[in-house]
Amino acid sequence: MDPLSFFSQARAFIVTGKGGVGKTTLSGVMANLAARQGLRALIVQLGIPGARREAEPAYLSHLFGWPENLSYQQVRLRPGGTGGGEVSARALRPDTALVEYLHLHGMKRLSHRLVSSGALDIVATAVPGMPDMLVLGKLKQMERAAAAGQADAPDVILLDAPAAGHAVRFLQSPHGLLDAAGGGPVRAQAEEVVEMLADPARCQVVLVTTPEETPVSETIETAALLEDRVGIKLCAVVVNGRFPVLSLPPPMSAAELCDRAAAAGVKLSPPEAESLVAAAELRLQRQESQAVQVARLAAELPLPQLELPFCFSAELGPEQLDDLTDALARALTNWVPVSA
């Protein structure tokens, strides 16, 4: 499948996985690949209620080489090229989403009072599930704008969702509010969000994991919960951080390695040889362990797998972003979507 066909499956992709497996990185990589196809991609991160710009998420900014942290105001991380594609991003917070909701529904005076009195955070988080509902409601609004083809709307939305442990609760919140609210604008908003989450043409989930036992187990569990409790379509699972498979020689002693090196005209000291032997053994163990977990993931979770390689870099920036984007494009070549 070509990347453009991949992104045509839905207008919004919710990216989630166990904390630390690279879901923010994947959100950036997907957005970057979409922009290469001439699409306008928008990454939405969950901001910190009431936080100043300097306290907002910074990792995505570093990935694109952007000098400032994200804020509620949308910024262009990668300007449009000759094909018209671009990457924008924003940090979405429940309190600011509530202000915008009130403005859109003719209640500016009330929003000003909440801000001036300092009660905005309290109101936005007072009802269980309401913070999540406000964020998902804003996502629904952006998705509708994309569907309507509005001039300033993105073609693809990537929501960098909470970690897997909280993602199910996050996406379940509209269902909970449906049960709690008998009517009114809260119930209407919840109904519209549930409708969006249930429509695979509008919204799908991309799971991300690393090829390790605990993340794989949590990914399998999260997938089952999302399908059973939320009713949202799972698009694919991305295995992040897969080591390139090396053809390593059979295990040998440090003395044997020194002899082979000498025969090839290379002089190794015993400590150097011991370090190389230990490194080869560790690499072989990691390769085998990752292969086992990837096979287990395929057996227990019937979703198409996409792989991203491990980046041997202390920090990820624009160069690594482009390398990972190339890798995702290659992985999509043999990718087959899940049937509806």
Task: Give a description of the structure.
The chain has a single domain, classed as Rossmann fold, CATH 3.40.50. It has 13 helices and eight strands. The two termini are about 15 Å apart. With about 350 residues, the protein is α/β, with parallel strands linked by helices.
Summarize the structure.
The protein has 340 residues and is α/β, with parallel strands linked by helices. It is 52% helix and 15% strand. It contains 13 helices and eight strands.
The CATH superfamily turns out to be P-loop containing nucleotide triphosphate hydrolases
Globally, the shape reads: elongated
Label the structural class. alpha/beta
Within the CATH hierarchy, at the fold level, what is the topology? Rossmann fold
Number of strands: 8
Biggest beta-sheet profile: 8 strands, mixed
Can you identify the CATH class? Answer: Alpha Beta
Assign the CATH architecture. Answer: 3-Layer(aba) Sandwich
Number of alpha- plus pi-helical segments: 13
Q: What topology does this entry show?
A:
Layout: H1 3-7, E1 12-16, H2 23-36, E2 40-46, H3 59-64, E3 75-78, E4 86-92, H4 94-104, H5 108-117, H6 120-125, H7 130-148, E5 156-160, H8 164-180, H9 184-198, E6 203-209, H10 213-230, E7 233-242, H11 254-263, H12 270-300, E8 305-309, H13 318-332
Parallel strand pairs: 1-5, 1-6, 2-4, 2-5, 6-7, 7-8
Antiparallel strand pairs: 3-4
Helix pairs in contact: 2-13, 4-5, 4-7, 7-8, 7-9, 8-9, 8-10, 10-12, 11-12
